[in-house]
Design brief:
two-stranded parallel sheet, 8 helices, about 20% strand, Rossmann fold, alpha/beta
Length: about 300
């Protein structure tokens, strides 16, 4: 029986990951929420990791704009906390699968970022997440896995897809930026891929290092909003394109967040499907229950 620990188990990805793991009868799963495990506490982390074979870290400071004014606090979670997990896994022999972000890149590319592309975050959040990546690579060169994701949406937390449908009930038209490119990724689909990577790691098929856990293809926030409206039976022409300068934010956003997926072949796994396919699955799948409710 493989013993699995999930940190950040109360979050959007954490809850979907738990649903995938608990569908398996060959796993013993421990769910650690923010209330039950503070990953910035090294001793608590060591106690939590002990006795587990695999650790999935979905715990994170995710307030991108808030990190601009609280970078030290964000880094304590996204950097130091990950280092505590990596050290504990190194000491106990557990494999660590850590979820990171496209924000480690500057967002100025014109072709998909490969897994080994140079990093250069444009904001405090990205810097804090990069610190966590470096900790995994440093302390777990042979048993640590960094999975970068982006544009995540799901049933159990605030996200762009749910926001668009909520606003559809309040406004006749919506202005959505059309000058940022990325890969919308369903958290449940990412959860299934994280578990598959863990299986491959335990079987000795997956080399340690960095993987990109985003859906294939690409679009803009405007394109995603239109697709959401179409699937919800709403008129996509209610979505109007605009530019990022119309919505100034404290933290700069990467304009290009398209990631390459070549490394999955090394683990004998396919990349995640095209974002259109998984978005459709998210609307139609009863597991987890779709949160997309339209009046």
């Amino acid at each position: 029986m493989t013993r699995v620990l999930v940190t950040g188990a109360g979050g959007m990805l954490g809850q979907d990951l738990l649903a995938v793991l608990r569908s398996r009868d060959d796993l013993t799963v421990t769910a650690a929420t923010r209330a039950t495990l503070d990953i910035t506490d090294a001793e608590a982390v060591r106690a939590a990791v002990t006795g587990h074979d695999v650790v999935f870290n979905t715990a994170a400071w995710t307030d991108v704009d808030g990190a601009e004014q609280a970078e030290a606090t964000a880094t304590a979670v996204n950097g130091d906390g990950v280092a505590h997990l990596a050290r504990a896994c190194a000491d106990t022999g557990a494999r660590l699968l850590h979820v990171s972000t496209d924000y480690v890149f500057p967002g100025d590319a014109g072709t998909p970022y490969p897994e080994d592309a140079p990093t250069d975050p444009v904001n405090a959040y990205g810097r804090s997440k990069l610190a966590g990546e470096r900790a995994v690579v440093r302390f777990l060169p042979d048993t640590g896995y960094v999975v970068r994701t982006a544009w995540l949406y799901g049933a159990h937390g605030p996200n762009f897809v749910a926001t668009m449908l909520r606003l559809a009930e309040q406004r006749e038209t919506l202005d959505v930026v059309d000058d940022q490119q990325g890969q919308p990724t369903w958290s449940y689909a990412l959860g299934t891929r994280l578990v598959a990577l863990a299986d491959a790691a335990l079987a000795g098929r997956a080399p340690a290092g960095i993987y990109h856990g985003t859906c294939s293809g690409r679009t803009t926030w405007y394109g995603l909003a239109r697709a959401v409206f179409t699937l919800a039976g709403l008129d996509p022409d209610r979505i109007r394109p605009t530019t990022s300068d119309r919505f100034p934010r404290p933290a700069a956003r990467p304009a290009y967040s398209v990631l390459g997926h070549d490394r999955w072949a090394a683990a004998r796994l396919e990349p995640l499907p095209d974002w259109h396919e998984t978005l459709s699955d998210a609307f139609s799948s009863p597991t987890p229950p779709a949160p997309w409710k339209v009046a």
